[in-house]
Amino acid sequence: MLDSSLLEQLRSVFGALENTVELVYENSSHEDQKDLLDMLQSVASTSDKITLTQNASGTSPMPQFRIDYKGKPTGIVFKGIPGGHEFTSLILAILNTDGKGKLLDSVIADRVRRLNKNITIQSYISLTCENCPEVVQALNQIALIHGSLRHEIIDGGYVQDDIKSLGIQGVPSLVANAKMFHSGRIQLLDLVAKLESTFGVDANAAPSEPVNKNLGHFDVLVIGGGPAGASAAIYTVRKGLSTAMITEKIGGQVQETKGIENLIGVTYTEGPQLAAQLNQHIASYPVKVLENRRVKKIHTESKVKAIELESGEHLTADAIIVTTGAKWRELGVEGEKEYLGRGVAYCPHCDGPFYKGKKVAVIGGGNSGVEAAIDLAGIVREVVVFEYNDQLKADKILVDKLKSLPNVSIVTSAKTEKIIGDGNKVQQIQYLDRSLNKEEKMDLDGIFVQIGLVPNSQFLKETVELTKFGEIIVDEKGRTSAKGIYAAGDVTTTPYKQIVIAMGEGAKAALAAFEDRMYHS
User: Angle, to 10 degrees, between the axis of helix 33-44 and the axis of helix 87-97?
Assistant: First the structure.
């Protein structure tokens, strides 16, 4: 049963519904069926536009329901009880079914409609997974737009035989035709591309809008929507400059951050919450936000910069502030991609429970690696931390905590060379003991990669000067080697990759762009 305060919130949220959304449940003898019905009845009680009915012709071995709209299935099916992080997925699915809430833009929608017909996708999830809702919610929207795509959200706790037979060791895992085609977090743009390559597209389907669309001219274009980008956009628009923002998703890398305790003035927050606050702050200003976009190329031949997007859209700007941040660095060794989701993982919070009672490795001895090892030590039988250098790089307080744990060991001077499996799951790690120049192997069940970040600067290789590590070289005011192009945050050479620093650097770059426009143009 949902508590009264949550029910009151849902009444307010569902007040926007105009048409009837039907929750159609299957009959089941499973002991959790009552819990599912209690939840669905509570949700339905908050709006006369939500009905709860039983599918008289179907039975299910587990709690299960689908969402119908105007008497027809939408393609969205929940197998399990969508509690935990997935409760939000249910609420958004109801809203989106009636065309409410935040919908996918026309460019993405056109690509979805061109996917071939009659597709079924199973998303195997865990209710404790923090990455799963983003993927589930994206696929639900895709199902609504596509029209003949069935998306089954499956709580892996109910189908352990399926988990075993499919070799799933990470969530979310996406399966079609009894074969896993993706595991782990994935951005919407990459998800759509993955669906296109997996299921094919109808080349004859015409887009609803011109592909080569001119988005207009702006005084400033901010590329990136994380803390640095949000700060830059707010500062430029407050200076009276027309501002646009190109981003894959508001929040950027912050979305993947668990606890944040060092943002001055905020005792504690979490990544998704901070990302939502950034979004809210940006939305309070006249910033033209273009999400789910990537920049393909920047033309700097004239004073006014011309920007091409991968979507085929284009725009111009007098100044550009790059705040594209960084992404998790991959090992780049044999076996890493082959065993992703089957023993190779990047999120200990999401995938750690799959390794209960097993032996795992954490690659990386910095703060993120040591924090991951500490978290995993409370779940798994044994954790081995591998560090390339001769000592761990993490803060002393974290290292001391790690060393106090009885089921953790540390291997230093270790260069990971290969991940070995049996075709279904990881079995060994092969590494070079750099101190002895000797190759070693260790038996284990899983590998969590935590080796830092790589800057998202690939699209700027021919535009601004980069370091050998891909960082954008900036001066004390965030100026790059190209006039009128500025940069801030984790994508730059600015030391100490911290949220609070990125925010300050974003503001600094914005003020520099304003100053140069006023006094040096």
Answer: 50
